Amino acid sequence: MLFAVRMTVHLPPDMDTDVRTATLAAEKEYAQKLQRSGEWLHLWRCAGRYANLSIFDVTDNDRLNDILWGLPLFPYMDVTVTPLARHPSDIRQQRV
Amino acid sequence: MLFAVRMTVHLPPDMDTDVRTATLAAEKEYAQKLQRSGEWLHLWRCAGRYANLSIFDVTDNDRLNDILWGLPLFPYMDVTVTPLARHPSDIRQQRV
Amino acid sequence: MLFAVRMTVHLPPDMDTDVRTATLAAEKEYAQKLQRSGEWLHLWRCAGRYANLSIFDVTDNDRLNDILWGLPLFPYMDVTVTPLARHPSDIRQQRV
Amino acid sequence: MLFAVRMTVHLPPDMDTDVRTATLAAEKEYAQKLQRSGEWLHLWRCAGRYANLSIFDVTDNDRLNDILWGLPLFPYMDVTVTPLARHPSDIRQQRV
Amino acid sequence: MLFAVRMTVHLPPDMDTDVRTATLAAEKEYAQKLQRSGEWLHLWRCAGRYANLSIFDVTDNDRLNDILWGLPLFPYMDVTVTPLARHPSDIRQQRV
Amino acid sequence: MLFAVRMTVHLPPDMDTDVRTATLAAEKEYAQKLQRSGEWLHLWRCAGRYANLSIFDVTDNDRLNDILWGLPLFPYMDVTVTPLARHPSDIRQQRV
Amino acid sequence: MLFAVRMTVHLPPDMDTDVRTATLAAEKEYAQKLQRSGEWLHLWRCAGRYANLSIFDVTDNDRLNDILWGLPLFPYMDVTVTPLARHPSDIRQQRV
Amino acid sequence: MLFAVRMTVHLPPDMDTDVRTATLAAEKEYAQKLQRSGEWLHLWRCAGRYANLSIFDVTDNDRLNDILWGLPLFPYMDVTVTPLARHPSDIRQQRV
Amino acid sequence: MLFAVRMTVHLPPDMDTDVRTATLAAEKEYAQKLQRSGEWLHLWRCAGRYANLSIFDVTDNDRLNDILWGLPLFPYMDVTVTPLARHPSDIRQQRV
Amino acid sequence: MLFAVRMTVHLPPDMDTDVRTATLAAEKEYAQKLQRSGEWLHLWRCAGRYANLSIFDVTDNDRLNDILWGLPLFPYMDVTVTPLARHPSDIRQQRV
């Protein structure tokens, strides 16, 4: 089941440098592991903003919630979630 | 070059039935032709709304503009465009 | 899987009376059938507004989308969809 | 009498860990006590956000106000309140 | 139980004059009857706008909903509802 | 002359406890003095929020401004002001 | 007593030409009469928009309300009203 | 003196075809004449929307207002105006 | 050339008292000097808010920008700028 | 390929003076280097605000993203990006 998620990050300008570096590294590792497992289907930077647009393919809402709450940057994020369904004009036969 | 486009459709409730049917058929054909050509990369329904989230892969802004203005439903749409860039945590090596 | 859906209805003041009566009757029958089948879990009026807050229990996003697009009043509605997950402080053991 | 309440939580990233832990534990205990007493009817996580959607069943506005002001997380919350009424298409005969 | 209700009226400029006159007369009679019965406690014009701020004193949400849906101008209104509770600094001892 | 004023309070979570206690006590005394003098006509809590809806009866805009700027909590408030006029359907003959 | 009023006009594109001409002429006459009487203190066009910013000097809210409701273009306007008070840095000694 | 102007066009879907064609032709001629005279400095399409971003170089606010009110599409436009000033990091020595 | 400027001030509650006093005194002196020179034409308090509505009469956008950036309270302000033009119903013959 | 970018800067009032001075100097140098290279085509101050409107001419979205993320003031900015296309009424034959 697909969800579009937009994450906007607000890091405090006075954040401790070590904490910041460690958090960003953990975020990257976390994002890449989920991409490899197939649940984090797409990850794009919104050009010129500290924000991304992501597509998740998960079993249900609970799993999506667990993934997003597990993000190391979650406490610094605004998140919007849009559940996606199959579009009748989509040419691909497989379910979205 | 990738763009996320969100289209929300507002058809007048009193729209002529034939015009409506013809417009929707033309829209579907238009959308499927561009999916086959590779420029309309993804097309998802926003669940429960007359809206979609699409990803386009085009050569430049002018081409994106031409595609969207060519949509048979364009006069009935609100459109938002988000240019996408490669995300540093994206595991795929190819450029977006 | 649960979703909160808020529907706000905008009927044109000059809507044909017969069409209006028939549409409202069809809407009521549709809503009650889905409540009986267990997919439309809750249906509340937002006091003093032509709007409702509903909770749906469906298998996935596609089913939610089909239900909402099938509403006889769908062409007259603004709809917002919020996917729900289990809350860690919820005392009920069954998954939402 | 039913009310839909949406609570969005903003904890300061630099909140003292002990205060945070104690406040969250108190919040959980408070929420569960009110669920057991029957006033906090439903408690759902808005998937992927630090927010919940709750349904309260209380005697009047004053009681709702007392409950919400008593939340240990209240100073960190944005709250919206929607009074609910019985919907004419609701199949349940009991009053909401 | 008190509620603050803000009603904003949008009459179509091309509304039939007789319908308009009859609707406005019915609205006035309806509003005055409810003021005399004590349920419509206050009725103020928002200066310079086709809008009012009203205070209702009703038994519950269902009664408020019935009153507002019964307004002859209801199909032309945007309505916002704010449930009110007793303020700890209010000098009047009687319950709000 | 009547004005509806909505005040929303944002106290910093880390506010000094003594300052907070003293400010809230001063606010209460200030509000009650103005209620007794007749200028602060109504004071209601917006249920479940740190906000109130108030009605002031003052001689002019300057007096309203002085009263609001004198609030001990003024530096922590968002304030909206709506000037009120007599409504043609108001059954009370006295001027508002 | 001064009020800043911003009026934004939305004339239907298909408005009858004669009605339009007559309404605009009446609006101009109305505005100029009130400027001459001293109640409509300033009238500025918001550059490039069908909108104006006006300053009124009236005895009270009721008078302001009567003036604005009397505008021939009132049914086509969005209006916002801001009550003004004397500013402590204003060099003019006379009351605003 | 420079101004950024964003124009968003809303043509009614049922607009008469001849009126539409004539209005668009007049708009184009009007826009090109002002570009040639040097007052309409830049004219860009906002990609994928019926909107443009324009830069005007005019003597004063009155002239800007006259130009925008003279647009054949003006009755169908939402317009926002941003006055521009010289930026201290602009490398061009001439005043904007 | 006239501009309407709305300034909303947000002073941090924990601002150093001396800095605050000095900044406010500098702001007052600055505002009064520009009123005397004729460039700051009107200065009104928005009743009940830490905000003002001002009218400036300046030679061009650059001068307006210099004046506003020079405000001692500028770092604490939200500012909106509306360029004003002569209104066709304004009875005064002099240009605005 | 052209993009309109609006940057709004929020510097913390208590920012260290040396850091502030160094950051602003680096920002100026960065902006001027990119203007000289031809990628930062226009840079205008939004009059009276700590904001600018810029036009960039870059090869693609990735390059735009790199430029904006490289801004020394980027952590303090709100940024909006509008991709621009050739307007059919633009008199210049060269591609935008």
TrEMBL record, chains A, B, C, D, E, F, G, H, I, J:
InterPro entries: Dimeric_a/b-barrel, MLI_dom, Muconolactone_d_Isoase. It is an enzyme of class 5 (isomerase). One of its GO terms (biological process) is beta-ketoadipate pathway. It catalyses: (S)-muconolactone = (4,5-dihydro-5-oxofuran-2-yl)-acetate. Pathway: Aromatic compound metabolism; beta-ketoadipate pathway; 5-oxo-4,5-dihydro-2-furylacetate from catechol: step 3/3. Residues 1-90 form the Muconolactone isomerase domain. Keywords: Aromatic hydrocarbons catabolism, Isomerase. The keyword Transferase does not apply. Its EC number is 5.3.3.4. GO terms for molecular function: muconolactone delta-isomerase activity. It comes from the Bacteria. Coiled coil: none annotated. Homodecamer. Belongs to the muconolactone Delta-isomerase family. This is Muconolactone Delta-isomerase. The gene is catC.
